[in-house]
Description:
Layout: H1 4-9, H2 12-19, H3 27-33, H4 42-55, H5 58-66, H6 74-77, H7 83-91, H8 99-116, H9 130-140, H10 145-167
Amino acid sequence: xxxxxxxxxxxxxxFVEQLGGxxxxxxxxxxxxxxxxxxxxxxxxxxxxxxxVEQSSPQAQLTLLxxxxxxxxxxxxxxxxxxxxxxxQGSLSLNNLPPEQHAHMQRxxxxxxxxxxxxxxxxxxxxxSVDDIFALLERRLNNDADTEREAALTQVHLIAxxxxxxxxxxx
Length: 171
């Protein structure tokens, strides 16, 4: 863990190394907030990073959404998930689903990609069970494209919040 005071003082490269994975495969978000240092606290850093995403172009947001892996998808099967994604998916055993649940998840993955062009994104650590994830994804399949983009970005911010909480030491 690292403190906000330390993050405020490290070299830019170290700052990006520490925070580059908070948003999946998107170190550009950490790079974008370097110039806003010093951050008063955890909340200030979190809000700055979230604001970068919210103020970015629709194309940049779509790229961020596409950077997220599918649940129990090919990247997981090949062992290509980031450490954070592997830990998150593993917290509810999404990387080891029984055959029937795995098939259901694969159908949901396909439906999300076909309809929205990005995976169904859920902050797994904010859910209690695989069934909760299934129910949330099934409901969100009824969204229109704009509504789902907003829902997915909300989940991305929740994922980032959990990852920041794992990294930043707050007293």
